[in-house]
Structure formats: structure tokens, C-alpha cells
Amino acid sequence: MTTHSKTVVVTGVASGIGKATALNFAAQGCAVIGADLQYSDENRARLETAGVTCLVADVRSTASIECVVNGALADTSRLDVLVNNAGMGMVKQIGDVSETDWDTVMDTNLKAAFFGCKAAIAAMLKQPSGGSIINVASNAGLLPRSHDPVYSISKMALVGLTKSLALCHSKDRIRINCVCPGPVENTQMIEENFVGRSDRQEVVRELIQASPLARAWDRMISPGEVADSILYLASEAAHMVSGTAIAIDGGKSLGVPPD
Ligand code: NAD
């Protein structure tokens, strides 16, 4: 797998899957530009030590995501990879969802990726080598979940966006794929599952039980495992791969596992 000397933009880089992804690309010798709302001192130091540029940007703003992508292009004269990773959860039933809730989730999980793709495709169209875009969806983008309908809708639409744009731009050598993680440890997002629960280990056990492979290995999915699939999709090894949705969910989206 080679990704050397590529220019890579990663959104939501300050923690979890985005951080692991940025560190993976930096370790490959890529120029990595990250964007996030904010950074802890510890995570910023870890990223910057690895050579990752840490920008502050709210990807819900079309102007901000364009600025991040176009800034990377201006600095390195190319854009090889965009990882639309920034995202947020929303555990609410329809009766409790306000218009603001809907807009916030859709703008973060879907609109940001669409306009990120728009800016990246404009840059990649000018390169004979095209480029690669990876969207971070979810197992909820493959099989909707009953506890978070707005999140599920946003991620299903992100899978649809991936396939639609992949179909439009394969002719330009621009590949667009997505990854669909299941419950991933060491992320801010998974922390939402522990709110109001006194026994963390019990919650971890429930999360592991929800995915047959996680159950078989008796552990959760790691950010690095998702980051490795993203690295593969960006690499020459995946030059004939576009429009796929790779489930890194321990089989969670396959349905109800046997006892
Ligand atoms: P995380 O909460 O640790 O990371 C998400 C990052 O996105 C955070 O650093 C956050 O600040 C950033 N972000 C959120 N809104 C933003 C905005 N408007 N502008 C810029 N940055 C913004 O969680 P994670 O698991 O690493 O999440 C990464 C992606 O993985 C998300 O799209 C999420 O939906 C997806 N995902 C996560 C899990 C999981 O179990 N953690 C499972 C499936 C899918």
C-alpha cells in the first residue's frame, strides 16, 4: 500500500477515528492538513509532532470547508485525498426532534461532506491522477437503528452521496468510497453511551454483544482499524475501487446474530 507524498485533508481530526487516520497518513510521509472545531492541548501536540497541520474550522459552514480544501491545495499545489470524517450523533425520537436538531445533524454529517466533495472534486479534476475521497459513514448507514433515526438518516444519505458521486466521477479517475464503522472505542462519540450509566464495563459488554465479531473476539473496534481501511481506500491498491461502503462493524449491520 503506498500513499507517499500525497496531500491529504482530514476533517474531525482532533480525536477518535480522525486523529488515527491523520497519524496513519503522516506516518506514510503524506502532507496532512486537519480541521476540527477545537483541540485538546494533548491531541494537538500529538498531531503536530507527527507533522499534521491543525486548523480550526466548522465544517458545517460551506465557506470553511472550501477554505480548508483550497488552503491545502494552495500550500502543496495538489489535493490527493479528502477524508470527510467529522460527525455527530443524535439520540432522539422523531417527536423530540426540532428543526434545529435536524439541521445541525444534517449539516455536520451530510452537507459538510457534500461541499467538501464539491471543493475536492474541483481540485482533483485538474490532476491527471484524479484523487480519492473517503466518507466516514456508519453501520447505521447500512441498517437503520431505532434509537437514533436522524443520525441513521444522515449516514444512509452519506452512503447514497458516496455511490452517486462515485458513479459521476469515475471517468475523471476520482474515486469516492465510504467506511461504515460499528461502535469504536476511544472516541468522544462512544462516550455518549456512558452518560447516565454507573457501570462502564456493563456498557462496554453491551456494545460488544451488539456485533457478532466483536462478541467472538470479546473486544470493541479500534480507531486504528477504521483508519487502516481508510488508508487502503486512499492507496494504489484500491485504484479500481469506487462507490463501496466497507463495513468495519464486526458484522453489526448483518442483522441479529445467533445466540
Ligand atoms: P469523535 O467524536 O471522537 O470525533 C469526531 C470529531 O469531529 C470531533 O473531534 C469533533 O470535534 C469533530 N467535529 C464535529 N462537528 C464538527 C464540525 N462542525 N466541524 C469540524 N469538526 C467537527 O468520534 P469518532 O467516532 O472519531 O467520529 C468520527 C466519525 O466516525 C463520525 O462521522 C462518526 O459519525 C463516525 N462513526 C463513529 C462511530 C463510533 O462508534 N465512534 C461509529 C460509527 C461511525
What does this structure look like?
Strand 2 (31-36), helix 2 and strand 3 form a beta-alpha-beta unit. This protein has a single domain (7-254), classed as 3-Layer(aba) Sandwich (Rossmann fold). It contains nine helices and seven strands, in the order βαβαβαβαβαβααααβ. It is α/β, with parallel strands linked by helices and 259 residues long. The mean pLDDT is 96. The protein has a seven-stranded parallel beta sheet, with helices on both faces. Helix 1 crosses helix 9 (223-234) and helix 4 packs parallel to helix 5. The chain binds nicotinamide-adenine-dinucleotide (NAD). Nicotinamide-adenine-dinucleotide binds next to helix 1, strand 2 and helix 6. Nicotinamide-adenine-dinucleotide (NAD) binds next to helix 1, strand 2 and helix 6.
Count of all domains: 1
> Oligomeric state of the chains?
single chain
How many helices? The count is 9
What is the CATH superfamily label?
NAD(P)-binding Rossmann-like Domain
Which ions, cofactors or small ligands are bound in this entry? nicotinamide-adenine-dinucleotide
Low-confidence stretches: none
CATH C-level class = Alpha Beta
Mean pLDDT: 96
**What's the architecture in CATH terms?**
3-Layer(aba) Sandwich
Output the strand order for the largest sheet: 3-2-1-4-5-6-7
Principal-axes geometry comes out as: globular
* Number of beta-strand segments: 7
What distance separates the N and C termini? 38 Å
Sequence of secondary-structure elements: EHEHEHEHEHEHHHHE
Radius of gyration: 18 Å
CATH fold category name: Rossmann fold
